[in-house]
Specification:
The protein has 250 residues and is an alpha+beta fold. It has seven helices and 13 strands. The longest helix has 18 residues.
Amino acid sequence: MERTLKLYARQDLSMRKGKLAAQQGHSACAQLLNAMEDHGASRYLNPERSGHFLDFLDNPLLDFNLVDGIEGLQAALTDPQNASQIIDRGLTEFGGVPTLTCAAEGLFPLDPHRFVPTAVNPIQARQWLVFSKEQPLRKDDAAVLAALGCLVQLRDLMVGDRETGLILSLENPALKAWLTDGFGKIGMGIKTDKDLDELQADLTDASVQTNRLVMGKNTLLVIGPAFAEDVATVMGPESDRYTTRLLSLL
Protein backbone atom coordinates (compact mmCIF):
# COMPACT_ATOMS: atom_id res chain seq x y z
CA MET A 1 0.00 0.00 0.00
CA GLU A 2 1.09 3.59 -0.68
CA ARG A 3 2.88 4.98 2.36
CA THR A 4 2.49 8.64 1.41
CA LEU A 5 -0.71 10.64 1.82
CA LYS A 6 -0.93 12.76 -1.32
CA LEU A 7 -2.87 16.01 -1.04
CA TYR A 8 -4.15 18.14 -3.90
CA ALA A 9 -5.80 21.57 -3.74
CA ARG A 10 -7.08 23.90 -6.43
CA GLN A 11 -5.07 27.11 -6.45
CA ASP A 12 -7.41 28.77 -8.96
CA LEU A 13 -10.07 29.08 -6.23
CA SER A 14 -7.83 31.40 -4.16
CA MET A 15 -9.12 29.91 -0.91
CA ARG A 16 -8.12 31.74 2.24
CA LYS A 17 -5.61 29.91 4.40
CA GLY A 18 -8.11 28.64 6.96
CA LYS A 19 -10.54 27.48 4.27
CA LEU A 20 -7.78 25.57 2.47
CA ALA A 21 -6.69 23.95 5.73
CA ALA A 22 -10.25 22.89 6.54
CA GLN A 23 -10.83 21.46 3.07
CA GLN A 24 -7.59 19.49 3.15
CA GLY A 25 -8.53 18.23 6.60
CA HIS A 26 -11.81 17.03 5.05
CA SER A 27 -9.93 15.08 2.40
CA ALA A 28 -7.63 13.39 4.92
CA CYS A 29 -10.58 12.43 7.15
CA ALA A 30 -12.48 11.08 4.15
CA GLN A 31 -9.50 9.03 3.00
CA LEU A 32 -9.34 7.30 6.37
CA LEU A 33 -13.08 6.93 6.92
CA ASN A 34 -13.62 5.61 3.40
CA ALA A 35 -11.05 2.89 4.09
CA MET A 36 -13.03 1.69 7.13
CA GLU A 37 -15.84 -0.84 7.22
CA ASP A 38 -19.26 0.53 8.19
CA HIS A 39 -20.64 -1.51 11.09
CA GLY A 40 -23.56 0.80 11.81
CA ALA A 41 -22.74 1.81 15.38
CA SER A 42 -19.03 1.90 14.62
CA ARG A 43 -16.42 2.09 11.87
CA TYR A 44 -13.71 -0.58 11.66
CA LEU A 45 -10.22 -0.50 10.14
CA ASN A 46 -8.95 -4.04 9.59
CA PRO A 47 -5.63 -5.16 11.13
CA GLU A 48 -3.60 -4.78 7.93
CA ARG A 49 -4.83 -1.25 7.32
CA SER A 50 -4.59 -0.41 11.03
CA GLY A 51 -0.94 -1.40 11.09
CA HIS A 52 -0.33 0.66 7.99
CA PHE A 53 -2.12 3.67 9.48
CA LEU A 54 -0.20 3.44 12.76
CA ASP A 55 3.10 3.17 10.87
CA PHE A 56 2.12 6.31 8.95
CA LEU A 57 1.41 8.22 12.16
CA ASP A 58 4.80 7.16 13.55
CA ASN A 59 6.50 8.51 10.43
CA PRO A 60 4.02 10.72 8.56
CA LEU A 61 4.77 11.32 4.89
CA LEU A 62 2.55 13.90 3.20
CA ASP A 63 2.94 15.34 -0.28
CA PHE A 64 1.02 18.59 -0.93
CA ASN A 65 0.33 19.75 -4.48
CA LEU A 66 -1.42 22.80 -5.94
CA VAL A 67 -3.32 22.23 -9.17
CA ASP A 68 -5.29 24.41 -11.60
CA GLY A 69 -8.98 23.75 -12.05
CA ILE A 70 -11.06 20.60 -12.03
CA GLU A 71 -9.16 19.24 -15.01
CA GLY A 72 -5.84 19.77 -13.28
CA LEU A 73 -7.08 18.01 -10.16
CA GLN A 74 -8.37 15.02 -12.08
CA ALA A 75 -5.16 14.78 -14.10
CA ALA A 76 -3.00 14.88 -10.96
CA LEU A 77 -4.72 11.89 -9.34
CA THR A 78 -2.86 8.65 -10.01
CA ASP A 79 -5.83 6.47 -8.97
CA PRO A 80 -9.14 8.40 -8.91
CA GLN A 81 -11.08 5.33 -7.77
CA ASN A 82 -9.05 5.27 -4.56
CA ALA A 83 -9.04 9.03 -3.96
CA SER A 84 -11.29 11.13 -1.72
CA GLN A 85 -12.43 14.21 -3.60
CA ILE A 86 -14.07 16.99 -1.60
CA ILE A 87 -16.99 19.03 -2.86
CA ASP A 88 -17.61 22.05 -0.64
CA ARG A 89 -21.25 23.04 -0.20
CA GLY A 90 -20.51 26.68 -0.94
CA LEU A 91 -22.12 27.92 2.28
CA THR A 92 -19.26 30.28 3.20
CA GLU A 93 -17.41 30.74 -0.11
CA PHE A 94 -18.01 30.13 -3.84
CA GLY A 95 -21.30 32.01 -3.93
CA GLY A 96 -23.43 29.12 -2.70
CA VAL A 97 -22.29 26.85 -5.54
CA PRO A 98 -21.06 23.33 -4.59
CA THR A 99 -17.41 23.32 -5.65
CA LEU A 100 -14.72 20.64 -5.98
CA THR A 101 -11.88 22.02 -3.87
CA CYS A 102 -9.31 19.34 -3.13
CA ALA A 103 -8.55 15.63 -2.84
CA ALA A 104 -6.43 13.09 -1.02
CA GLU A 105 -5.12 9.72 -2.15
CA GLY A 106 -2.75 7.10 -0.84
CA LEU A 107 -2.40 5.09 2.37
CA PHE A 108 -5.29 2.72 1.64
CA PRO A 109 -7.35 1.12 -1.08
CA LEU A 110 -10.84 2.42 -0.32
CA ASP A 111 -13.90 0.43 0.63
CA PRO A 112 -16.22 0.10 -2.41
CA HIS A 113 -19.19 0.89 -0.11
CA ARG A 114 -18.00 4.28 1.00
CA PHE A 115 -19.49 6.31 3.80
CA VAL A 116 -21.55 9.12 2.26
CA PRO A 117 -22.37 11.93 4.71
CA THR A 118 -25.77 13.57 4.59
CA ALA A 119 -25.75 17.27 3.75
CA VAL A 120 -27.26 18.93 6.82
CA ASN A 121 -27.59 22.66 7.34
CA PRO A 122 -26.91 24.07 9.84
CA ILE A 123 -23.95 21.94 10.88
CA GLN A 124 -24.53 20.56 14.38
CA ALA A 125 -20.98 19.49 15.29
CA ARG A 126 -17.59 20.37 13.89
CA GLN A 127 -13.86 20.48 14.41
CA TRP A 128 -11.94 23.71 14.92
CA LEU A 129 -8.42 24.04 13.53
CA VAL A 130 -6.69 26.80 15.50
CA PHE A 131 -3.25 27.89 14.26
CA SER A 132 -0.88 30.05 16.28
CA LYS A 133 0.00 33.22 14.37
CA GLU A 134 3.13 33.85 16.40
CA GLN A 135 5.22 32.63 13.46
CA PRO A 136 4.49 33.14 9.73
CA LEU A 137 2.28 30.33 8.38
CA ARG A 138 2.39 29.35 4.72
CA LYS A 139 -0.70 27.95 3.04
CA ASP A 140 0.95 24.65 2.19
CA ASP A 141 2.14 24.17 5.78
CA ALA A 142 -1.38 24.94 7.06
CA ALA A 143 -2.82 22.35 4.68
CA VAL A 144 -0.37 19.63 5.70
CA LEU A 145 -0.73 20.38 9.42
CA ALA A 146 -4.52 20.28 9.12
CA ALA A 147 -4.54 16.95 7.27
CA LEU A 148 -2.20 15.30 9.75
CA GLY A 149 -3.89 16.88 12.77
CA CYS A 150 -7.30 15.57 11.77
CA LEU A 151 -5.91 12.04 11.35
CA VAL A 152 -4.16 12.17 14.73
CA GLN A 153 -7.38 13.35 16.33
CA LEU A 154 -9.35 10.49 14.79
CA ARG A 155 -6.75 7.99 15.99
CA ASP A 156 -7.17 9.27 19.54
CA LEU A 157 -10.91 8.61 19.28
CA MET A 158 -10.33 4.97 18.28
CA VAL A 159 -9.78 1.85 20.36
CA GLY A 160 -7.85 -1.27 19.37
CA ASP A 161 -4.42 -1.95 17.93
CA ARG A 162 -2.65 -3.29 14.87
CA GLU A 163 -3.41 -6.90 15.83
CA THR A 164 -7.17 -6.53 16.37
CA GLY A 165 -7.83 -3.54 14.14
CA LEU A 166 -9.01 -0.05 15.09
CA ILE A 167 -12.62 0.76 15.99
CA LEU A 168 -14.25 4.18 15.90
CA SER A 169 -17.39 4.01 18.03
CA LEU A 170 -20.27 6.30 17.11
CA GLU A 171 -21.79 6.23 20.59
CA ASN A 172 -20.51 9.77 21.12
CA PRO A 173 -23.39 12.00 19.86
CA ALA A 174 -21.06 14.79 18.72
CA LEU A 175 -18.89 12.40 16.73
CA LYS A 176 -21.92 10.78 15.12
CA ALA A 177 -23.40 14.18 14.20
CA TRP A 178 -20.03 15.32 12.83
CA LEU A 179 -19.79 12.29 10.55
CA THR A 180 -23.39 12.67 9.41
CA ASP A 181 -22.95 16.37 8.69
CA GLY A 182 -19.88 15.83 6.53
CA PHE A 183 -16.88 16.32 8.85
CA GLY A 184 -17.43 20.07 9.36
CA LYS A 185 -14.33 22.17 10.14
CA ILE A 186 -13.39 25.80 10.47
CA GLY A 187 -9.89 27.28 10.29
CA MET A 188 -9.04 29.83 12.98
CA GLY A 189 -6.02 31.85 14.07
CA ILE A 190 -4.87 32.93 17.53
CA LYS A 191 -2.18 35.54 18.16
CA THR A 192 0.43 33.73 20.26
CA ASP A 193 1.54 30.28 21.40
CA LYS A 194 0.73 31.33 24.98
CA ASP A 195 -2.85 32.15 23.98
CA LEU A 196 -3.06 28.72 22.34
CA ASP A 197 -1.76 27.06 25.53
CA GLU A 198 -4.41 28.82 27.61
CA LEU A 199 -7.17 27.94 25.16
CA GLN A 200 -6.20 24.26 25.20
CA ALA A 201 -6.08 24.20 29.01
CA ASP A 202 -9.54 25.74 29.28
CA LEU A 203 -10.99 23.34 26.71
CA THR A 204 -9.46 20.40 28.57
CA ASP A 205 -11.08 21.65 31.79
CA ALA A 206 -14.38 21.75 29.88
CA SER A 207 -13.84 18.09 28.78
CA VAL A 208 -13.52 19.02 25.10
CA GLN A 209 -11.25 16.78 23.02
CA THR A 210 -8.11 18.55 21.76
CA ASN A 211 -4.83 17.62 20.12
CA ARG A 212 -1.76 19.76 19.55
CA LEU A 213 0.68 19.37 16.65
CA VAL A 214 3.94 21.19 15.97
CA MET A 215 5.64 21.23 12.57
CA GLY A 216 8.77 23.33 12.37
CA LYS A 217 7.86 26.65 14.00
CA ASN A 218 4.12 26.29 13.38
CA THR A 219 1.59 25.02 15.91
CA LEU A 220 -1.94 23.71 15.41
CA LEU A 221 -4.63 22.89 17.95
CA VAL A 222 -7.35 20.50 16.71
CA ILE A 223 -10.57 20.81 18.72
CA GLY A 224 -13.47 18.36 18.62
CA PRO A 225 -15.50 16.97 17.00
CA ALA A 226 -17.83 18.74 19.41
CA PHE A 227 -21.13 20.57 19.50
CA ALA A 228 -20.79 24.35 19.24
CA GLU A 229 -22.53 24.86 22.58
CA ASP A 230 -19.93 22.67 24.28
CA VAL A 231 -17.09 24.97 23.26
CA ALA A 232 -19.03 28.25 23.50
CA THR A 233 -18.30 28.71 27.19
CA VAL A 234 -14.59 28.78 26.35
CA MET A 235 -14.42 30.16 22.81
CA GLY A 236 -17.54 32.30 22.62
CA PRO A 237 -20.76 31.81 20.62
CA GLU A 238 -20.30 30.82 16.99
CA SER A 239 -22.37 33.78 15.86
CA ASP A 240 -19.56 36.03 17.09
CA ARG A 241 -17.02 34.10 14.97
CA TYR A 242 -15.04 33.38 18.13
CA THR A 243 -13.69 36.88 18.50
CA THR A 244 -12.93 36.25 22.17
CA ARG A 245 -9.45 35.10 23.22
CA LEU A 246 -7.88 36.82 20.20
CA LEU A 247 -9.41 34.19 17.89
CA SER A 248 -10.29 35.10 14.34
CA LEU A 249 -11.00 33.43 11.00
CA LEU A 250 -7.74 32.46 9.33
